[in-house]
Automatic annotation (TrEMBL):
Coiled coil regions in record: none
Family membership noted in the UniProt record: In the C-terminal section; belongs to the class-I pyridoxal-phosphate-dependent aminotransferase family.
SMART domains associated with the record: HTH_GNTR (SM00345)
InterPro entries: Aminotransferase_I/II_large, HTH_trans_reg/aminotransferase, PyrdxlP-dep_Trfase, PyrdxlP-dep_Trfase_major, Tscrpt_reg_HTH_GntR, WH-like_DNA-bd_sf, WH_DNA-bd_sf
Keyword terms, alphabetized: DNA-binding, Pyridoxal phosphate, Transcription, Transcription regulation
Domain of life (superkingdom): Bacteria
GO MF annotation terms: DNA binding; DNA-binding transcription factor activity; pyridoxal phosphate binding
Domain HTH gntR-type stretches: 17-85
Keyword Cell inner membrane found: no
Classification via PROSITE patterns: HTH_GNTR
Protein name in UniProt: GntR family transcriptional regulator
Length: 454
């Protein structure tokens, strides 16, 4: 195939600034978007340099680079041609679906991102980095940065009454990775099913299923997961949100806590305690971790996502001794360990008291916001019944019998209000409800949002 070489000035010159990289980049783009088709013979380096007004060496170097990348082929006596060795994707891609912009976003699970302690985090990051030795800038320990593991063990013992030691703590890239690691280790140990609360977060159930585990729902009542129903399943692993059940907001009753441990001992089982937002309790101190009742049977899981921000992607597992080595080994094979700089910053924030100060501030903030939401609902929707304890970042409201909560969600979405139906979290029929997050909106904005829920 031949080409009219006089056209290359018009083809390439508008984007060429005279530097080698500019010529190289524009030639590459011309191949990829189809302006230069497979088999097209290019001008000699001398001719193209004259057309573009650049040095011959600039074109020679650009040709050589693109030959090395496989875009062009150069043969003595045949010149340089566009390669036929492959096809190149177009640079034009369809626009992704835009993220919905809600007038009032009441989805559960998001903290007040505008309350993130930016100044304290920057200071902690700088201090953490300054304190790292040259050796600590190498590949991280698969189980986590040792100073952070020590700080987490101290924090969890002090705030959550967990029974732990630094050696039991594994730092992960958020709680999702922690759950993923556990799934693969447990499956390798012979587990084929896992029990979850019904209702529960659909994302967790989907992740469990994606790792080849059969998910079995166990009903929740006013006292938490029904351990009697759990005992009738063939599962030897269960995932629970004991301190603040998601989404219903109930607390696992003391008798159920002991029954859960007895179940695990009887069947040689494991309890995974997802402690996702236990620090946010507004009317009284949160109950201690179930893990303290039997550290050999309970995996305690937490993260910074509900206290600081999901963007940090920092989580942790407190593991029974029997699971420590296989989980750390799985983590090593996955990614060699969580990035050290974030861990060093978080360790500094814990050590210096910044994490505790932030929690005190946000507890007061969220309590006011929850109170504003509950008061507004009482005025505007007196037939709606709030469910669960004063805790966390969301509240569930029970709707009158016969209400279609999915239809209601669609109705509110048309008004720009993101109010999630309880039906999204259930696998078997339950009463109609809405799961309303309040942490990310001010009291005034929450009152405005409730006025739209008519």
């Amino acid at each position: 195939m031949t080409a009219d070489w006089s056209t290359y000035r018009e083809l390439l010159l508008p984007a060429v600034s005279g530097r080698r990289r500019a010529v190289e980049t524009e030639l590459r783009r011309a191949v990829r978007d189809g302006r230069l088709t497979t088999g097209t013979r290019l001008p000699s380096s001398r001719d193209l340099a004259e057309q573009l007004g650049v040095a011959r060496g600039t074109v020679t170097a650009a040709y050589a680079q693109l030959v090395g990348e496989g875009y062009l082929t150069a043969k003595r006596g045949s010149g340089t041609t566009v390669t036929a060795a492959g096809t190149w994707p177009s640079d034009s891609r369809p626009e992704p679906d835009p993220t919905p912009h809600w007038r009032y976003d009441l989805r559960p699970g998001l903290p007040a991102l505008n309350a993130f302690p930016r100044a304290e985090w920057v200071a902690a990051y700088r201090a953490g980095l300054a304190g790292l030795s040259d050796e600590e800038l190498g590949y991280p320990h698969a189980a986590g940065f040792p100073p952070l593991r020590a700080e987490l063990a101290d924090y969890l013992g002090r705030v959550r009454a967990a029974v732990t030691e630094p050696e039991a703590v594994v730092v992960t890239n958020g709680s999702a990775e922690g759950l993923s690691l556990l799934c693969r280790v447990l499956r390798a140990q012979g587990h084929r099913s896992i029990a979850v609360e019904e209702p529960s977060h659909f994302g967790a159930a989907e992740m469990l299923a994606s790792h080849g585990l059969r998910v079995v729902g166990v009903p929740v009542d006013d006292h938490g997961i029904r351990v009697d129903a759990l005992s009738t399943t063939d599962c030897r692993v269960v995932l629970v949100t004991a301190a603040h059940q998601f989404p219903l907001g109930v607390v696992l009753h003391p008798e159920r806590r002991h029954a859960l441990i007895a179940w695990a001992r009887a069947c040689d089982g494991i309890v995974i305690e997802d402690d996702y937002d236990a620090e946010h309790r507004y009317d009284r101190p949160a109950v201690g971790a179930v893990q303290a009742l039997d550290p050999s049977r309970v995996v305690h899981q937490g993260s910074t996502s509900k206290v600081l921000a999901p963007a940090l992607r920092l989580g942790w597992l407190v593991l029974p001794e029997s699971l420590r080595e296989p989980v750390v080994e799985r983590k090593r094979h996955d990614d060699l360990g969580t990035e050290t700089l974030r861990q060093a910053a978080f360790a500094q924030l814990l050590r210096g008291g910044g994490y505790d100060r932030h929690l005190r501030r946000t507890r007061a903030l969220y309590r006011k916001r929850r109170d504003a939401l509950i008061d507004a609902l009482a005025r505007e929707q007196p037939s709606w019944e709030p469910i669960g304890v004063a805790a966390g970042l969301h509240v569930v409201v029970r709707l009158p019998p016969g209400t279609d909560d999915l239809a209601l969600q669609r109705k509110y979405a048309a008004r720009g209000v993101n109010a999630v139906a309880l039906a999204h979290y259930v696998r078997t029929p339950l009463w109609p409800g809405l799961v309303l997050g309040y942490a990310s909106l001010s009291p005034d904005r929450l009152r405005e949002a409730v006025r739209e829920l008519r």
